[in-house]
Every structure is written in structure tokens, then in C-alpha cells.
Amino acid sequence: MVGGGIDDLLAATRERYAAVRPASRALHDRATRVLPGGHTRTVLHFDPFPFRVTHAEGPWLVDADGHRYADLLGNYTAGLLGHAPDAVRAAVTETLARGWSVGATQAHEVELAELVTARFPSIARVRFTNSGTEANVYAIAAALHATGRRGVLAMRGGYHGGVLTFGDAPSPINVPHEYHLTDFNDARALDADFAAVAPRLGCAIVEPLLGSAGCIPGTPEYLGRLRELCDAHDVPLIFDEVMTSRLGPAGLQGELGITPDLTTLGKYLGGGFSFGAFGGREDIMSVFSPRPVPLSLGSMASRAQRAARPAPSPLAHAGTFNNNPVSMSAGVAALRHVLTPEAVRAVNARGDGLREALNAIFAEHRVPLWTAGRGSMMNVHGSPGPVRTVADAARGDDRWKELYFFAMLERGYYLARRGFIALSLEVTDEILDGFVAATRDWAASAPTA
Ligand code: PMP
Questions:
Q1: For 52, which DSSP code?
Q2: What is the strand order of the sheet 60-63 is part of?
Q3: DSSP secondary-structure letter at 397?
Q4: Is the CB of 208 under 6 A from ligand 1?
Q5: Which terminus, N or C, of the chain has the lesser number of Cβ atoms within 10 Å?
């Protein structure tokens, strides 16, 4: 189909969407008078206006106009547990009965720290934050302070929070560090880019599967090479596993067998409440203790260098809600009772099956869409694929994704406007079968490229 055709189709689809959602439209109009753009989380907006959710019913979301959607977005991975995990509800209810705004330490944070360090072997010491963004801000700060260096190696297309966003260039509102960018999954570029700035680097940060850039898995070779380079130059390697820690019982690092120096966590690990965490090597994390220890250098360091290295000064890590009892007790319940290794493996196996089913349908009907990802995290791209790099993702035609998005909403399935899907434990095989059937139904009548 030619460009004009798909544009007309899209315009008609948007009109159909808007016509049956007067209540959401009215709320959007009200919102634009008090919230810039009508929202307070940019990713939730799409044109002509997003539907407004009134409540969840099991794995379904219900909007202000009474439409019901199977929730395949799972709050961008934070909703892994679904909308009604009994164990979390019971824990939070108990916490609410005991008081939730206590400016004091309590037992919940100790228990959660014990569970997190037991689950992720690379995390010897951990600290809690309110969001994944904060976790990354602090992890980077800790690594720079511990090494006494200023450079941060990051990936083009990487996302570590609104103030740590890397497109082709760092976002203008990024935390103002000295950034050096390289290309994800391009080992040759990595070798050259790393070598050019190695002595300046105080850390390298990477998401082992680029989530926001389109669920692009890092190849084991690429991530292994990054680990080697960081070892060779004593550069702490930070794995941002805010999203990807759900891809295996011990995170994606556990699946890959690659051990970072620091790891950041967030999203679902607070049981669905606001949450973030960063942790890792004892020496780096000791900057937040009263008596930091000198960095224990890696394979290249001689004993003399090690002895000459001064201990960094102690840092404060503040945050009124860092140890808030609701998130802490919800996280404990989630890890203890819900996120068993079996449950984590099962939801990821389901995701693998769904990705394969979608790609088979797109190929069979010659629809120029392709689903990238791993396990329960995936992203439909507007190209016939495969999508293995950020450049591959950028080549896609966004209109196809939009068409698919609205077609699925019409059939009662909610994924992100950008094509992102994150399955929750609540999504049943029946729902997935229905979604695959809806995709097949749409693909069979969709225009061909
Ligand atoms: N890192 C990654 C990889 C993320 O996907 C996100 C959120 N999408 C963040 C960090 C930021 O987390 P939060 O939204 O909790 O600040």
C-alpha cells in the first residue's frame, strides 16, 4: 500500500477511537488546563488523547467510557505481579494498620535487603530509592566517586531514566556528567570508543537488553567484551536491570552469566509500589558507609597501586521515602511469596512463545512488523526485522505500529503505543490465545506494505 493509503487508514482509525471515548476526551481536555500536555508521565500520552483508566479487574483495565482491555503492557514492566497479588495486598494492609510514615529505620528494609542480596549474587550491599532513575543517578555517582574519575560510558539509544536518556546525543536535561557514547551490539565500535577514553572512565552503564529502545537483547559476545574491557581498565560496570531483572530468577545477568560491579533495580520489585535500588560490590558501595574502603582494583593493578589508592570520603544518600514501609513490605512479600524462580521462568517462557507466534503471523501475512525481545519483554517494530541494533529499530515505519496499536485496542488488548509488551503473571494462556487470534484477524485484512 502506498503512503497516502496508510495515512488515511490511520486517520480513520484515530477517529473511530475518539468517537467512542467521550469521557476520556473530556478528562483529557480538563487535564490540559492543569498538566502540561495533559499528563504527568510523558510515555503514557498518545494522540489524539489517551484513554483514562478508572480501575483494574484482574488482568483487565477498565476505562472511563467502560471499555475493557486485557493489560499486556503491565505498567512498562512494573506490573509484573498483576493488579491483585494476594500476598502483596495482605502485607501492605498489615503495614497500613501499623503506620506508614515513620521517620525511622524499621525491619522491613533489612528483610528486603537480605532478599535482594540473596537473589542477585553480584549485589553484596544494596540501598533503596524511590525510582529506577534515582537508582541510576546514585549508582553512577558512587562509581565516579569511588574511582575519582569523571567519564561515563553509555550506549546510544540507552535509557536509564528521564535525566539519563541517550539518543544520538545525551538529552539536554541529563544529569551533567562527562558522557562518552558508543553503539550497542557493535563490538568493533566499542573497542575503539573504549580505548579512546579508557583512562577517564569512572563507569560504564548498559541495560543488557535495551528496553525502551525496543527490547533489543545485547549479544553475549558484546556484553562479554564490555565486561573484559571494564576489567582491563578497572572501570566499574553498571548493569541497569530496572526492567531486565525480571528476565530470570537472578536477573538477566544470571541468564547471561555476566557479573556487573553495580546493578540497578526498580519497577516490579517494589511489588507495584514506587521503588528503586542500587547495589553491588562491597568496596564501591562502602562510599555510603561512615568508613569507605579504597577501591579494590581489578586484574591490572599491582599491589603498590592498590596500596597507594586513598579511601574516598563518605557520601550521604538521602531520600525521605527510601525505606517507606509500604514499598519495603510489598517488596518483601513479592520476593518471598510471588516471584519464585518457577513463576519467573514460566512468564518468560510464555513471552518467548508469544513473540514467536506474532512473528509467524506477521511473516505469513506479509505485514511489515517484527517483534524483538526476550522472555516476557517484547516490542513490535514497524519493519519486517530482524531488529538487532538501535539503527535497525530506527529504520521502522512508525505508522504500522500505530495501526497495529489501535487495531488491538479496538479488539480489547492494551500494549504501549510504541509497541511495547510486558506480560504479567496474571495474563492467562486464554488471554494470549485471544491476542494471537486478534493479531491474525487483523493481519489477514491489513494492507500489505
Ligand atoms: N532504567 C530503565 C532501563 C528503565 O526502563 C527505567 C524506566 N522505564 C528507568 C531506569 C527509570 O525508572 P523509573 O521510571 O522508576 O524512574
A1: P
A2: 53-57, 60-63, 68-71, 413-414
A3: -
A4: no
A5: N
Q: Which residues pair with 238 in a beta bridge?
A: 205, 262
pLDDT 10s digit of each residue in the chain, 449 long? 444 689 999 999 999 999 999 999 999 999 999 999 999 999 999 999 999 999 999 999 999 999 999 999 999 999 999 998 999 999 999 999 999 999 999 999 999 999 999 999 999 999 999 999 999 999 999 999 999 999 999 999 999 999 999 987 789 999 999 999 999 999 999 999 999 999 999 999 999 999 999 999 999 999 999 999 999 999 999 999 999 999 999 999 999 999 999 999 999 999 999 999 999 999 999 999 999 998 886 644 555 555 567 899 999 999 999 999 999 999 999 999 999 999 999 999 999 999 999 999 999 999 999 999 999 999 999 999 899 999 999 999 999 999 999 999 999 999 999 999 999 999 999 999 999 999 999 999 987 66
Task: Output the DSSP codes for 256-323.
Answer: HT---SEEEEEGGGGTTSS-EEEEE-HHHHGGGSSS-------TT--HHHHHHPPPPPP-----TTTT
Q: Is 161 in the pocket of ligand 1 (CB under 6 A)?
A: yes
Instruction: Quote the pTM value.
Output: 0.97
Give the number of the atom of ligand 1 that is nearest the alpha carbon of residue 276: 15
CA dist 285 → 6, 244, 339 (Å): 53, 22, 26
Helices vs strands, H then E, count in the chain: 15, 16
